[in-house]
């Protein structure tokens, strides 16, 4: 709770852009920060959910604007970012969190190659094209904070989840690569490598069974921690050894993972 209070204090009167605000982690973060007095720009496709959240934010004493758009449309993403800069100014925080998870095995991908192109557009090229104008303006001003949602799987291999893992790996690598450039212009970067979180992204059956999944509220505390500490990566304690194992024995770890990760493929 302390982190939530400190993050609220940090965000008071600041402009904060949150993508993926209509649901799950993004929504839980905005709800937790609603009494902060921040000026939120809420981005996702479902306008009705964004408008409901904006009403809640306003009732709690902050400001909220809604941008309903599909980030896979890179021109729409760029235009939305330019609109923020033109009408509201340069954000203090960009929480780039929107994403879409498609689990489809190789055989399924043969008939549905769009699973790959849709994942890359929602998880990589779309978020990058939306972030670029905002990050460029933050660099020119010389300050700000880029918080990017990634996943514990981004630097490993997960059979059956190749569209999701590959597109998130691209996003994770992109964010890590621009971080030093941003830092030299005074902009901090934090990567949030989430494990399972019990949001609508998980199918209901899996959500019910996923006893080890974090709650969206706990995930929102991770975002608050990033806001307060500006640490480069927020991740579970076991992620480093997990990644080292995958780096040291990639074929073996993928084989061991396959029977578990292939159980829920072919949806999305
Ligand atoms: N849940 C997990 O276990 C887990 C684990 C690791 C990482 N993550 C990551 O956490 C982030 C948030 O996911 P979540 O768990 O909170 O799931 P969620 O409840 O499904 O939220 C996803 C958010 O992204 C938005 N979004 C998806 N596609 C979009 C598009 N094309 N254009 C604009 N907005 C789009 C959705 O809004 P609309 O549908 O209204 O557009 C929604 O607000 C994602 O990047 C996800 O990959 C989740």
Automatic annotation (TrEMBL):
<keyword id="KW-0560">Oxidoreductase</keyword>
<dbReference type="GO" id="GO:0016491">
    <property type="term" value="F:oxidoreductase activity"/>
</dbReference>
<dbReference type="InterPro" id="IPR002347">
    <property type="entry name" value="SDR_fam"/>
</dbReference>
<dbReference type="InterPro" id="IPR036291">
    <property type="entry name" value="NAD(P)-bd_dom_sf"/>
</dbReference>
<comment type="similarity">
    <text>Belongs to the short-chain dehydrogenases/reductases (SDR) family.</text>
</comment>
<dbReference type="GO" id="GO:0016020">
    <property type="term" value="C:membrane"/>
</dbReference>
<dbReference type="Pfam" id="PF00106">
    <property type="entry name" value="adh_short"/>
</dbReference>
<protein>
    <submittedName>
        <fullName>SDR family NAD(P)-dependent oxidoreductase</fullName>
    </submittedName>
</protein>
């Amino acid at each position: 709770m302390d982190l939530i209070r400190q993050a609220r204090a940090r965000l008071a009167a600041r402009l904060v852009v949150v993508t993926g605000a209509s649901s799950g982690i993004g929504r839980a973060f905005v709800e937790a920060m609603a009494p902060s007095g921040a000026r939120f720009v809420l981005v996702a496709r479902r306008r009705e959910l964004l408008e409901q959240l904006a009403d809640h934010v306003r009732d709690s004493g902050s400001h909220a604007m809604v941008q309903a758009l599909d980030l896979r449309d890179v021109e729409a993403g760029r235009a939305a970012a330019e609109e923020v800069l033109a009408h509201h100014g340069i954000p203090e925080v960009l929480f780039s969190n929107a994403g879409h998870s498609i689990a489809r095995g190789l055989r399924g991908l043969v008939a549905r190659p769009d699973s790959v192109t849709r994942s890359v557009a929602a998880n990589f090229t779309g978020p990058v094209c939306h972030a670029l104008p905002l990050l460029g303006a933050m660099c020119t001003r010389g300050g700000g904070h880029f918080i990017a949602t990634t996943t514990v799987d981004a630097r490993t291999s997960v059979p059956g989840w190749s569209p999701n893992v590959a597109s998130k790996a691209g996003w994770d690598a992109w964010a890590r690569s621009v971080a030093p450039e941003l830092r030299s212009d005074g902009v901090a970067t934090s990567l949030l490598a989430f494990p399972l979180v019990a949001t609508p992204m998980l199918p209901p059956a899996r959500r019910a069974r996923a006893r080890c999944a974090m709650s969206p509220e706990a995930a929102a505390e991770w975002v608050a921690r990033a806001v307060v500490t500006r640490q480069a990566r927020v991740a579970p304690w076991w992620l480093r050894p997990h990644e080292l194992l995958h780096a040291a024995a990639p074929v073996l770890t993928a084989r061991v993972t396959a029977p578990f990760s292939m159980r829920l493929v072919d949806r999305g």
